[in-house]
Amino acid sequence: MSDIKKFMYINTKAPYGTIYAWESLEVVLIGAAFEQEVSMAFIGDGVYQIAKGQDTSDLGVKNFSPTYSALGDYDVNKIYVEKESLEARGLTLDDLLGLKYEDEDDDWAEKDSIRVVSSTELAEILEQQEVVFSF
């Protein structure tokens, strides 16, 4: 029996204005560094966390969105985005960061990490997790 557990981190908040998005990303990277099976979901305003073209200069805070590109290096390659949340905000997959990982089982081919799923599909994925954190 494996000691590796399935951890899902659900992101529901906009990227700036609170500490939730940044703390979630930090916790995800730490968990992945300890070889846990880590996945992420972006729901509601959380979809803005991985939107392209973030400019925080008027907010006076550091733009941490480039850090999401490191997820693939930590084997975090199951990133789920709720379709209904994207649609409600007028966004599509093309509006999101191009998050990739290298698949060692496929001769290190570069593959997309983001999967757009319906709320029903996401509920099924969540049922398969052992630990769920919500930020």
Largest sheet: 5 strands, parallel
Give the count of helical stretches.
Answer: 3
Compute the number of strand runs.
Answer: 7
Shape: globular
Task: State the low-pLDDT regions, or none.
Answer: none
Q: State mean pLDDT (0 to 100 scale).
A: 94
| CATH architecture descriptor name | 3-Layer(aba) Sandwich
Give the tags:
single chain; 135 residues; alpha/beta; Hypothetical Protein Ychn, Chain: A; 5-stranded parallel β-sheet; 7 strands; 21% helix
Brief rundown of the structure:
The chain has three helices and seven strands, in the order E-H-E-E-H-E-E-E-H-E. With about 140 residues, it is an alpha/beta fold.
Helix/strand layout:
Elements: E1 6-11, H1 20-33, E2 37-42, E3 79-82, H2 83-88, E4 100-103, E5 109-112, E6 114-117, H3 119-127, E7 131-134
Parallel strand pairs: 1-2, 1-7, 2-3, 3-6
Antiparallel strand pairs: 4-5
Description:
The chain has one domain: Hypothetical Protein Ychn, Chain: A. It is an alpha/beta fold and 135 residues long. The protein has helices at residues 20-33, 83-88, 119-127, and strands at residues 6-11, 37-42, 79-82, 100-103, 109-112, 114-117, 131-134. Strands 6-3-2-1-7 form a five-stranded parallel β-sheet. A two-stranded antiparallel sheet has the order 4-5. The protein is 21% helix and 24% strand.
